[in-house]
Design a protein that fits this description.
This protein is an alpha/beta fold and 354 residues long. The chain contains eight helices and 13 strands. The strands form four sheets. A five-stranded mixed beta sheet has the order 1-7-6-4-5, with helices on both faces. Strands 8-13-12-11 form a four-stranded mixed beta sheet, with helices on both faces. Helix 2 (65-80) packs across helix 3 and helix 5 crosses helix 6 (275-287). The chain is globular and about 60 Å long. The two termini are 18 Å apart. The mean pLDDT is 94.
């Protein structure tokens, strides 16, 4: 029986750091354009206590999302030790395309996947390149799609990318702008006959009745700005409650499909959106099994890297595999869970044997 496994992984973390203190002079406003009652120092302190974010990374001015993706893809291809001409698919998960620094326009022509194929110098026309828009869970969804292609016998090697430059679509008058960052992660999903590693089960969902516009594009909070530019906006409380109610159930569904016992799970790599929310999700998940949360089960990178959307899970996985997260490691044969939630509202989870 053909299985699929991650045979190589890589990430690109921009070098420019923006710390919380760098926001001290920003003019944060409420949604109605009014001033906050609190001083920025207090806003920033509360922000850190809730999200865990202390700093985030922004791309160099001359790099776009597709550039970050290219750098991460090169590392994944090298890690897998494959010829890029052998790739059957390039699946690129993002949300906003290439947005140049100080631009107001998203550039999606050609697709970002096509741009990465071009940058990699791949000549094979049978390497099909396409983008997916699935919110923050996009990279995990790309891995699920790659597995489907492999199971169907129409692919043997797929490059799956998650990259974003959220710093270029934020409203600087919105305190939520402190959450977002830039980055890229990529992996090679490859066909294998091995029984000792690979994807064991998954679950994915889209909630769009009441939840479709929990994340949306909206006007600046500065009502004095007379422009039609739109920025990423979110209904934070609704997203928090939605995630706590639904992500643990999706993780449980994926685990049941994999026929793996909860006690065998060694690590959970969850989308790095909000430290308190992620901790609450993990607690809810283990509560479904009437179990305590194992110490160290959830690696975190959000403190230094912020929320880079589709890039957070592959970047975190890469950092742990490469031994770059203190006191976190995975061994051959370990069972791990990858999970995410984001715009859609979309949820997914994968159970994987490393």
């Amino acid at each position: 029986m053909i299985h699929s496994k991650i045979s190589g992984i890589g990430s690109f973390i921009p070098s420019f750091k923006k710390t919380n203190s760098d926001f001290i002079n920003e003019a944060f406003l409420n949604a109605d354009g009014s001033d906050f009652a609190s001083e920025n120092a207090e806003i920033i302190e509360k922000f850190k206590a809730i999200t865990g974010i202390e700093e985030r990374r922004y791309a160099n001015d001359d790099f776009n999302t597709s550039d970050l993706a290219f750098f991460a893809s090169q590392k994944a291809i090298e890690d897998a030790n494959i010829n890029p001409e052998e790739l059957d698919y390039i699946i690129f998960a993002h949300n906003f395309g290439d947005v140049q620094k100080d631009s107001v326009q998203s550039d999606l022509l050609p697709s970002l996947a096509t741009r990465v194929k071009y940058k990699l110098g791949i000549e094979n026309p049978n390497c099909v390149a396409y983008d997916i828009l699935f919110g923050c869970p996009g990279w995990i969804q790309g891995v699920i799609q790659a597995q489907a292609f492999i199971k169907a016998g129409i692919a043997k090697k797929c490059l799956v990318i998650g990259a974003e430059t959220l710093s270029r679509v934020v409203d600087k008058f919105d305190r939520d702008s402190m959450i977002y960052s830039d980055g890229a992660g990529a992996c090679i999903v490859e066909a294998t006959e091995e029984q000792t590693s690979g994807i064991l089960g998954f679950a994915d969902q889209t909630f769009a009745k009441e939840e479709a516009y929990y994340l949306f594009f909206g006007a600046s909070y500065n009502k004095q700005i007379q422009e039609n530019t739109r920025y990423i906006k979110m209904l934070g409380r609704k997203i928090y409650e939605f995630a706590l109610s639904n992500v643990p159930l999706a993780m449980k569904a994926a685990l049941e499909k994999s026929e793996v016992a909860i006690d065998d799970v060694k690590k959970i790599f969850i989308h790095q959106a909000n430290e308190k929310m992620d901790e609450a999700i993990i607690q809810r998940f283990y509560r479904l099994y009437k179990k305590r949360v194992p110490e160290g089960i959830m690696p975190m990178s959000i403190h230094e890297l912020g929320n880079s959307s589709v890039a957070t899970v592959p970047t975190l996985l890469d950092l742990v595999i490469k031994g770059l997260i203190p006191n976190q490691e995975i061994q051959k044969g370990d069972i791990i869970i990858l999970a995410s939630v984001g715009a859609g509202m979309n949820i997914n989870a994968i159970v994987y044997r490393y």
